[in-house]
Amino acid sequence: MKRPLPDADTVKAAIDTVLKQALATGRRPTVTAVERHLGIPHATFHRHYRDLVEEHFLPRVPAPAQPAPAETISGRTEENLSRLRREDTDLRHTLALYEEAIRQLTLENDALRQHAAIVPLPTGRGTPARA
């Protein structure tokens, strides 16, 4: 059983409500919010009410906030790049130190294994106790 779709006036009222809520909360209004408000799936809403979105909703959506001036962005970007390059250099140096330490430990381990005599340890079973 299909649920009847709301008429155009109900959809316009829902659009108005979502726009007012977005203005009050400082958020950007979305078509998804209108769909949720009406309880209609996106495909159905788009198929039946596309013209209302284009005529009644989109013209009333405020433009997105302007980005920061290019000078500020490029200054911060250059600072970030410099910092990241320094960190990269430091990390590469640290990695080289660790690689050398691992190499030395590997060589020492191999040398110890080759020269070590294997001595069996008493198990404690059947061995006479020392007095």
In short:
This protein is an all-alpha fold.
- Helix coverage percent of residues? 55-70%
- Cα-to-Cα separation, first versus last residue: 95 Å
Query: If you average the pLDDT, what whole number results?
Result: 86
Secondary-structure-based class equals mainly alpha
Total beta strand runs: 0
Order of helices and strands: HHHH
**Uncertain stretches:** none
What this model shows, in words?
The protein is 67% helix and 0% strand. Among the domains are: 8-60; 82-114. The chain is elongated, with a radius of gyration of 36 Å. By secondary structure, it is mostly helical.
Secondary structure: elements and pairs:
Elements: H1 8-25, H2 31-38, H3 42-57, H4 70-115
Features:
about 65% helix, mainly alpha, elongated
